[in-house]
Amino acid sequence: MLFVCYPKCSTCQKAKTWLDSNRIQYDLRDIKQEHPTYDELVKWHRASGLPLRRFFNTSGTLYKSMNLKEKLPDMSEEEQLRLLATDGMLVKRPILVGEGFVLVGFKQDEWESKAK
Predict the structure, then answer these.
(1) 88 neighbors 31 (Cβ within 8 angstroms)
(2) Given its phi and psi angles, is residue 7 left (phi above 0), alpha (psi -120 to 50 degrees) or beta?
(3) Cα torsion through 42, 46, 48, 50, rounded to 10
């Protein structure tokens, strides 16, 4: 599994602790150092079944400073994916990519049903 996170994020720290305590093996990737590519985001979005807006870190300072709440509704899906690929701090985290699933954000019950 691939665990994409920002190490300073408290939610990511909780998710990592959960993964470790459940002895789930993963490859860790720092979203700020190695942000998701456009192709990865397209693939993850399709596999997740989630609306694309769920991939945006709406509480982040970059999201707010770019006034994306107002801009996103007028952007195409491709434009949104390309924007997400420009900076990992725009992307909601953590992301857990496993065989047949992609989880965005840490909800323990959801992770337990998919990752174990």
Answers:
(1) yes
(2) alpha
(3) 90
With beta carbons less than 8 A apart as the criterion, state whether 38 and 52 touch. Answer: no
Is the entire prediction scored with pTM above 0.85?
yes
Kindly state the helix (H) or strand (E) to which residue 19 belongs, with its residue range.
helix 10-21
Output the pLDDT for position 116.
Answer: 80
Using CB atoms within 10 A of its CB, is residue 92 exposed (0-12), middle (13-18) or buried (19+)? Answer: buried
Strand partners, 101: 98
pLDDT at 94: 98
DSSP-assigned beta bridge partners for residue 5: 30
pLDDT in tens, 80-89: 999 999 999 9
